[in-house]
From TrEMBL:
Molecular function terms from GO: beta-N-acetylhexosaminidase activity
Every Glycoside hydrolase family 20 catalytic domain range: 90-266, 272-409
Reaction(s) this enzyme catalyzes, per UniProt: Hydrolysis of terminal non-reducing N-acetyl-D-hexosamine residues in N-acetyl-beta-D-hexosaminides
Name the record gives this protein: beta-N-acetylhexosaminidase
Family label: Belongs to the glycosyl hydrolase 20 family.
Native source organism of the sequence: Lentzea aerocolonigenes (Lechevalieria aerocolonigenes)
Record-annotated active site: E262 (proton donor)
Protein keywords: Glycosidase, Hydrolase
Enzyme Commission number, as recorded: 3.2.1.52
GO biological process: carbohydrate metabolic process; glycosaminoglycan metabolic process
Superkingdom of this protein's organism: Bacteria
GO cellular component, one term: membrane
Xref: InterPro entries: Beta_hexosaminidase_sua/sub, GH, Glyco_hydro_20_cat, Hex-like_dom2, HEX_bac_N
Signal peptide span: none
Amino acid sequence: MNLLPRPVSYVDGGRLCAYKGWETVLVDGPAGGYRLLSSDDGVLIEAHDAAGEMNALQTLRQLLGAQAFRAAGEKPAVIPACEIVDHPRFEWRGVMLDVARHFLPKREVLRYVELLSVHKLNVLHLHLTDDQGWRFECRRYPKLTEVGSWREDSRFGDRRSAGLKGRPHGGFYTQDDLREIVEYARQRHITVIPEIDIPGHSQAAIAAYPELGVHGGGVWTDWGVNERVLNTEESTADFYRNVFDELMDVFPSEIIGLGGDEAPGHDGELVRAIARHIVRGGRRPYGWDEILESGPLVEGTVVASWRGVEGGITAMRAGHDVVMCPEEHVYLDYRQSESLDEPIPVGTVTTLEDVYAWEPVPAELTGEEPGRLLGAQANIWTEHLDSARRVDYAAFPRLAAFAEVVWSPPEKDPGFVRRLAEHHLPRLDALGVEYRPLSGPHPWQRLPGVPGFPR
């Protein structure tokens, strides 16, 4: 449980104890789990592993109150006398952050790593390339960043009715930047999973190296599905083998993302070729559920089920591991209410309550499938989120609801919104997160006149 761990049994009627620090002992138990005991003698943490200790320390921080989340200032001196026994429900508790459509500076990615840790989330999936920008420094192919990392303009709002902003946009991460992000996350027991998207969503790469594409063209300034995809030449497969070699050198994660989504007219052979190359490198490929439609998957492939849960069910029944991230439940760029005040309203209405009500395990599963449900992931696409402030607005507090869903037992707490308002929003305030208020956006969070495309 993330916002107020449960079960909680208070010692001596819930009296307060002076906070004197903690002692940690490693014990047997579920991965990531812990027992926290607070008394006059101090705090004792019994943890299964180092991740369990980190989770316990985040709970301890919660118990100390919102002031404990400030970077400086007077710190709390008391803590409730209590015993808390807690562990995560799923091993994959993730967030996909799209830094390709709108680039987030390194400092903001590091901030999101910290926010994931606060919410006991443990996977950061970085969407590093798309039609609108290439964000990974590939030393063998420098034009990928020299040309592909910036675009001349950006659509402001939905492509069906919006104009252009009239200014360039760009940026990329050096390999040293990314190694820093990986290490910062590792210290917080968060795995960073990179994604280079192929064969679609590749216009930025084609702009840099036109021989990769079926058609030419510059870095895309529009949103949506682009019909310009990579060609099927062996030279293109060789190019991407070299790119993924550098990617795997920077990112030590077992799982490496290769996209595979929304590629009109492509037969999937390039995806299979790169998947085999990832496996030869000792890693596991990770792709969106469209990869199921182009023949048998390479052994070890993990499937992200985004077009509903059906793809994930099919993959598990075929023996593949799955991460559930269906757009109708956990796409956090989708609008948060029917109100006209919602900025750039796209997608279906996905309220805080909708996210909290979601159950990641489909009812159709029997528990006897040869593949595993690793967990779930919330996706933050940034076509319409052009700054860290806009990302905060879209992500929070819905990401707090998602974090509780993937940590806690499936039973829902009717007091969730009350607990959020009373206990967790003050923590977000202390952290400086510019979340959407429960009553609707602040005046400065609205974008009147910028068209969206609500469904």
